[in-house]
Amino acid sequence: MHCVLSLLFKKVTLLVIVYSDNSMIHIDRLEYYIREELNKTAPRTTVVLHPVKVVITNLDNESIINVDAKKWPAALSNDGSSYYKVPFTSILYIERSDFRKNDSKDYYGLAPGKSVLLRYAFPIKCTDVIYGDDENSVIEIHAEYDFLKKTKPKGVLHWVAQPSPGVEPLKVEVRLFEKLFLSENPAELEDWLSDPNPNSKEVIHEAYAVLSLASAVLGDKYQFERLGYFAVDPDTNSEKPVFNRTVTLRDAYSKGNLALLKRKESRWVVWTEKNNIIFSTKLFNATQAIERIIRLMESWTQL
Ligand SMILES: *[C@@H]1O[C@H](CO)[C@@H](O)[C@H](O)[C@H]1NC(C)=O
Ligand SMILES: *[C@@H]1O[C@H](CO)[C@@H](O)[C@H](O)[C@H]1NC(C)=O
Ligand SMILES: *[C@@H]1O[C@H](CO)[C@@H](O)[C@H](O)[C@H]1NC(C)=O
Ligand SMILES: *[C@@H]1O[C@H](CO)[C@@H](O)[C@H](O)[C@H]1NC(C)=O
Ligand SMILES: *[C@@H]1O[C@H](CO)[C@@H](O)[C@H](O)[C@H]1NC(C)=O
């Protein structure tokens, strides 16, 4: 079932579920269950979607320090299979959105003079920034790493380094999805066709990934640290792995609402992209509904 889940999750996120009394079930609820499942079954890995270059000025440009990254949050230190090796080298990449020219109290990313922890590796401190001609776009960040790990910064960032000096990281394609419609229930609208979310799909053609993702095959699913859960897309090939985001890590759904959902007995209706009712059936809980959706998706892929 897990395999099917990872294959079909993307389509599931395009669905909207409503009760027969027309009250909406937030897609957040469905996503809550998906996250619960994937938290247990999807190993952690690292991808930087919008890379900005960081040069570690106090590390020799020929050095490669292999650090242990966790595949599972609860990995025991004596369980080697729960870790994977990643190289830390003098040229690495962080998310563009994790750097700001102006620091502030509530900001945990990198800024001039500020330190952050590169997860599983070292704290780094930004010592210099090279800006483009517009004086705002960041070309390159210079930083020093604290190899004794004495600094304890609040912010923790994900990162991908050059696997060896002068070699670019693995490039992967990543497709991000958001809800297909802007309103919660497009069926309520007179003109639901005018409601699609313009940001429902974003394709990033060249994200940087750790090398272990080169061997990802269809059916594999991962948590990209800080970014969400992703499944390997059928378009993937040996030259370029392709991943679809199933859900982000954000969890807007509280335990209180969950209890309510479990108690409620109702009829579920599933709407597709085209707003066709695919099924309308009496189900007693969300687990059943999700199982039903998965079976349905299986039959779709067999067509
Ligand atoms: C990934 O997204 C593409 C659309 O960009 C879609 O055609 C494909 O079915 C999705 N793959 C999975 C595994 O959901
Ligand atoms: C994910 O699973 C770990 C145990 O492996 C648990 O400690 C953590 O709270 C879970 N995270 C979420 C968001 O459920
Ligand atoms: C950063 O701070 C400077 C000076 O305080 C200000 O002029 C500038 O607009 C700020 N930039 C951003 C992106 O907030
Ligand atoms: C490393 O630095 C040396 C001296 O600055 C330079 O000659 C060499 O080309 C650099 N190597 C790489 C892989 O960038
Ligand atoms: C929900 O449905 C599943 C599958 O039929 C069942 O195993 C589970 O016990 C049900 N949970 C609740 C809270 O009724």
Automatic annotation (TrEMBL):
<dbReference type="InterPro" id="IPR020056">
    <property type="entry name" value="Rbsml_bL25/Gln-tRNA_synth_N"/>
</dbReference>
<feature type="domain" description="Glutamyl/glutaminyl-tRNA synthetase class Ib anti-codon binding">
    <location>
        <begin position="42"/>
        <end position="146"/>
    </location>
</feature>
<dbReference type="GO" id="GO:0005829">
    <property type="term" value="C:cytosol"/>
</dbReference>
<dbReference type="InterPro" id="IPR049437">
    <property type="entry name" value="tRNA-synt_1c_C2"/>
</dbReference>
<keyword id="KW-0436">Ligase</keyword>
<keyword id="KW-0067">ATP-binding</keyword>
<dbReference type="GO" id="GO:0004819">
    <property type="term" value="F:glutamine-tRNA ligase activity"/>
</dbReference>
<keyword id="KW-0547">Nucleotide-binding</keyword>
<comment type="similarity">
    <text>Belongs to the class-I aminoacyl-tRNA synthetase family.</text>
</comment>
<protein>
    <recommendedName>
        <fullName>glutamine--tRNA ligase</fullName>
        <ecNumber>6.1.1.18</ecNumber>
    </recommendedName>
</protein>
<keyword id="KW-0648">Protein biosynthesis</keyword>
<keyword id="KW-0030">Aminoacyl-tRNA synthetase</keyword>
<dbReference type="InterPro" id="IPR050132">
    <property type="entry name" value="Gln/Glu-tRNA_Ligase"/>
</dbReference>
<dbReference type="Pfam" id="PF20974">
    <property type="entry name" value="tRNA-synt_1c_C2"/>
</dbReference>
<keyword id="KW-0732">Signal</keyword>
<feature type="signal peptide">
    <location>
        <begin position="1"/>
        <end position="20"/>
    </location>
</feature>
<dbReference type="GO" id="GO:0005524">
    <property type="term" value="F:ATP binding"/>
</dbReference>
<dbReference type="Pfam" id="PF03950">
    <property type="entry name" value="tRNA-synt_1c_C"/>
</dbReference>
<dbReference type="InterPro" id="IPR020059">
    <property type="entry name" value="Glu/Gln-tRNA-synth_Ib_codon-bd"/>
</dbReference>
<dbReference type="GO" id="GO:0006425">
    <property type="term" value="P:glutaminyl-tRNA aminoacylation"/>
</dbReference>
<dbReference type="InterPro" id="IPR011035">
    <property type="entry name" value="Ribosomal_bL25/Gln-tRNA_synth"/>
</dbReference>
<feature type="domain" description="tRNA synthetases class I (E and Q) anti-codon binding">
    <location>
        <begin position="156"/>
        <end position="233"/>
    </location>
</feature>
